[in-house]
Amino acid sequence: MFLSDIFTFNCNERMGSLRGARVALIACGSFNPPTYMHLRMFECARDVLEKKYGCDVVEGIISPVSDHFPKPGLLPSKHRLRMVELATRNSNWIHVDDWECAQGTWTRTIAVLKHFKMMLSRRDSGNTHLMLLCGGDVVDSFTKFTPSGTHLWEPADVSEIIRDFGLVVIYRRNSQPQATFRKLSLAKQLLDNVYVVNDDVLPNDISSTRLRAAIKSGHSIKYCTDDAVIEYIASNGLYRGADDEKVVDSNEREKLISEPSVR
């Protein structure tokens, strides 16, 4: 990955007070199952922050959504948590945290970020800056609406996330994060906290959806995720059929549409 393939939203060299900072990255989502794309996102983000902006990226946190998120096909958190543990077992900086998936209700992304900011502040005396790591498809969902006509993401949440935490966005095929940010009409000083990473050298379109479909149809998923994850899926008979589907109340489905699980 070349630095020329990495750019901030406004294509400038500004990074404000974050230049040279100690940074932790957090990715929220289903991880159903975790893939190499999820891990690759962390590596791409660390490359741009360290090599281009002189940051010290000290930690990568994966925060799986709780079982209370009404998403069809969402496996119980005990399985998703264990799979992420297996996928990250050889990493010296990326790990999974069970706080979000242990909550008794679905937790909005802004609340998750505030929790981990507080934890990092206690541990590091406020010296570590937490940033949200996500794909371009998640950014595109910022402007979407639920079937009932309400915002999928609360506009105030989006502004607060960008202002107080910042975003590192990994471009995904068919995503248009730059266009989405323009639609949001955010203040320029907020957009200075958005960094879009375009990994043209090693693009990765692996997705959990594709892996689930491949498993269900009997195809191999080797080299798409860690071998230990593949073994866990096989030994527990996961993603094989309708038994994996989670029943979702129609009213809840109306309130929280199924994609994405980060908002």
Automatic annotation (TrEMBL):
Residues 26-213 form the Cytidyltransferase-like domain. InterPro entries: Cyt_trans-like, Euk_NMN_adenylyltrnsfrase, NadD/NMNAT, Rossmann-like_a/b/a_fold. It is an enzyme of class 2 (transferase). NCBIfam families: nicotinate (nicotinamide) nucleotide adenylyltransferase. Homotetramer. Catalyzes the formation of NAD(+) from nicotinamide mononucleotide (NMN) and ATP. Can also use the deamidated form; nicotinic acid mononucleotide (NaMN) as substrate with the same efficiency. Can use triazofurin monophosphate (TrMP) as substrate. Can also use GTP and ITP as nucleotide donors. Also catalyzes the reverse reaction, i.e. the pyrophosphorolytic cleavage of NAD(+). For the pyrophosphorolytic activity, can use NAD(+), NADH, NaAD, nicotinic acid adenine dinucleotide phosphate (NHD), nicotinamide guanine dinucleotide (NGD) as substrates. This is Nicotinamide-nucleotide adenylyltransferase. It comes from Enterobius vermicularis.
